[in-house]
Amino acid sequence: MKKQEILNRIKITPEKERIARENLAKTPLEKGDFKALLIASFLMFVLPTLLVLGLLAFIMWLLFFAGR
Questions:
Q1: What is the pLDDT of residue 34?
Q2: Residue 65, CB half-sphere, CA atoms under 13 Å: how many?
Q3: How far is Cα 68 from Cα 55, in angstroms, rounded to an integer?
Q4: Given this model, what pLDDT does residue 3 score?
Q5: What are 5-62's pLDDT values in tens digits?
Q6: In 3-state terms, what secondary structure has residue 45?
Q7: How many whole angstroms separate alpha carbon 39 and alpha carbon 26?
Q8: How far apart are CA 17 and CA 32, in angstroms?
């Protein structure tokens, strides 16, 4: 029963959606927010992508060039 209560609490209702839209309309983005969003997107998207590509490159190097 506890799981059902949690699911009901996070369920998006039209009333909750209306309140969220009103709050968003009342608080527009500030000038400093763009720089923060840019930094956050770099940290969340670019760095993990570079890490995955680096890991793949390292694995390819191990498979094809490390044994010579």
A1: 84
A2: 5
A3: 20
A4: 74
A5: 777 778 888 898 999 899 988 887 777 788 888 999 999 999 999 999 999 999 999 9
A6: helix
A7: 25
A8: 26
Q: Could you give the CA distance from residue 68 to residue 48 in angstroms, rounded to a whole number?
A: 30
CA distances for 35 relative to 40, 43, 44, 50, 62, angstroms = 9, 12, 14, 21, 39
| Threshold 0.70, pTM exceeds | no
Q: Indicate the residue type of 21.
A: R
The answer to whether residue 67 scores a pLDDT higher than 80 is no
Tokens of 60: 């390819």
Alpha-carbon separation of residue 1 from 4, 7, 11, 27 (angstroms): 5, 10, 15, 37
Where does the chain have alpha helices with state H? 2-10, 14-26, 31-41, 47-64
